[in-house]
């Protein structure tokens, strides 16, 4: 670290130390003026957030082993403070731009303190360069954290929706069914497999019925995913029946040249249940319910 950078960091750190309460208060007020705060954050929480950021920034500036441009990303305490600020505000509904602007607003507040306390233009410039480097990087880090947080939330919600859209239903003793609706892609196949295999283990199921009545179209990819699921079910020691093979679906599968001859298929779920009961050796269904072979 050069002597100029070291001197600039010392001036900024001194300003943060000597005017800590004022900086925190002015930072909160500036965010209110810029309308970058989100509803639901109380005054006490804002004050704690401000005090923590100022203290973390001062501690990072004292770390002489890290260059200024890498303080936000590599100083553990400062990085954690920025990440927590971003996460808290993202959950409150703030936009990524608003979160970045909130961090960058601290520059204006500290620069005003430095202008009042430093008459030398060169010293002010050196301190401003340090402040810009560390808080510009901090704003970018807060933005990136927001994006990562939103992606995690979206991914988790997407998986939850897939789990809800592919329930494993117990139809009979030792017989489970998975009614599929919509598109069967790689990620959904994984969810279906995990849920079905776990249910087979928990219920000691002997037969799993995969009902594709609600699948609009079957192509080579969908057929491949179905065969993967059937193979996984068999590895668990259970038999598998595919139901919902309507005439258009059967014609498409034949045209694609997909070989499902080794898999038991039925036109309806009722027929599949009747076949499953024959496999398990359970009592036959009441008259008028299923029974197709």
TrEMBL record:
Pfam families: RsbRD_N, STAS. The keyword Phosphoprotein applies. The keyword Phosphoprotein applies. Keywords: Phosphoprotein. PROSITE patterns: STAS. Residues 165-276 form the STAS domain. It comes from the Bacteria. This is STAS domain-containing protein.
